[in-house]
Amino acid sequence: MTENLVCRKRMQSVIRKLFIAVLLLSAVQVNAQQDELFIPRNIQKAYQNNTRTVAGTPGKKFWKNFAEYFIQVKFNPKTLMLEGKQIITYYNNSPDTLKKLVFRIAPDFYKKGNERNRIIEADDVTDGVKFTNCIIDANKVDVNNPLQVKHEGTIMEIKVKGIEPRGGRTTVEMDWNYKLNLNSHERTGVIDIGSYFIAYFFPRITVYDDVDGWDEFPYLGQQETYFDNASFNVHITVPRNFMVWATGDLQNPAEVLHESVLKKWTMAQQSSKPVFLIDSADIRNNTVTQHKKFNTFQFKCTTPDFVFALSNHYLWQARNMVVDSLTMRKALISTAFNPIHKDFFEVNDFTAKTIEVMCFDFPGVAYPYSHLTVVDGRDQMEYPMMINDNPTTTRFDGITLTTHEVFHQIFPFLMATNQTKYAFMDEGWATLGEWYISPLIDTTIVDDYGMDRINSDLGKDWDAPMITNSTELTKSLFINSYPKPALTFLYLWEMLGDSLFKKSLQQYIITWMDKSPTPWDFFYSMNQSCGMDLNWFWKAWYFEQGYPDLGIIGINRLNYSYTVTIKSIGNKPVPIHLTATFADGSKKKYTRTVEIWKNKNITDVIIDTQQAITKLELGDVYDADIDKSNNIFVPKE
Ligand SMILES: [Zn+2]
Predict the structure, then answer these.
(1) How does the average pLDDT of the chain come out, rounded?
(2) Fold type of domain 65-223
């Protein structure tokens, strides 16, 4: 701008002035256009309908549908049969009359003949979920009647009379049963003989939202599911000596826990140090549950999902900690594990430390739930208030796995993002969470999860732009979901500075929690709350193909000053972390945040020194760079 004004002053001819003025005008327009993000048609519709705004906030007409689930489920560890009876009350707050209800029957992932993108063992192929009863608003539904019910893969659509817009409701009663998988543990199944993790288990009405209407994406195994908040009242019946851990608050501890466990449970609510609620003596003496043939554990919560785990030989360790400095609200941090997995004796500490950082540092928002329970399982998978984590052989793996899965409590669960379409909106944050928090637990950790794949894959033809729906990705699903978005968040953090970055992120979380933000809601919310137009950055990283590559292209010495010229050869902006080594062996790092690349691709770093520079090196652990051969420069003296 300044340069153009100087040019203009030199112009003598009025015609030439006008010509330049026209050119300038069009240049401004081109720039404005260049900085606008492409908005897909379904997202544009949400802006037109005023359900969301381009200022990055929910619109005046924002709505969400809601469901209440009353589920009674019985599990038989001998036969692995799960039997459920459920009543769903579904509230239609949308402006549309709903002509059908769409259910996701996730256990049908294991059903014979169904499409899957994960391999399962032949023995785990089932006949799927059997419905023995289905009643909608007092009308019996024959789930085998193709005129009313379309059941394909894990999606079941049932035609209904028409649920009134803005306040209409419907009631669905369903009785169902299926056999739990023994192996092929895809988020759910048998952990060992006597321990089970039961997730994605009940017929669930899928999300109906203002962007796409019904979520009809089948559950194929790989992609996680899109949930919005629902209220759950779940009664879980299991045989004597089985303890149940679940999403939600246990409503009837005195009815199900043995007196000794109940006493310790009450103690743990006051203890900031971990205590064993179930120890090996309780297991040996059968003093875990009440001595009834069956115990029914009752849980209540409002969360995006509900899962549970049970075991007749797991230890249970728990502590209480403050998770909200304003209200001093506390949460119970629990671990349930097999004592043969020695690593799990430390997982409670890792979990508590992660929660502490999340509440009071990054992102700096109160933990939203009353407890978090990490279960020693066979997966690496998060649920609201619950985690299914496999045992690990190294402390490094134990810490990085725990920090990652715990971080998911905010992203996706507090935000209720669409994990199926936008995996980066939760996996990206969980990756950054693990990179940041793991070294706070053990200072020797350098967690570079995914960086090797970044440097090898970025810019190849399968590397689709990050904005691509996760459902459309195969080979680039990993980098687009995990390290690539995490890097962009990290670069922003450095560019905005600690306080502005956290303030903007907290603003986004508070504005959009429970509201299922889209990526555009995130981009516009961050632009707004940090007071900067970051579209150039979003565009380069999320909407364009390409790669990051910085190189040192020249060095000039004038007396006591070196000018190091650095070029951003690739189109993806990465920060400059330039380390200079001097003749006496000392080192100094020179940093420029990604902002340096907003309008240019060449920049100089001036190094004033009385000494000769013996080596220059570009790049840190998290500086993505597909060609490192131009990162090192040894001046010839
Ligand atoms: Zn994850």
Answers:
(1) 94
(2) Immunoglobulin-like (2.60.40)
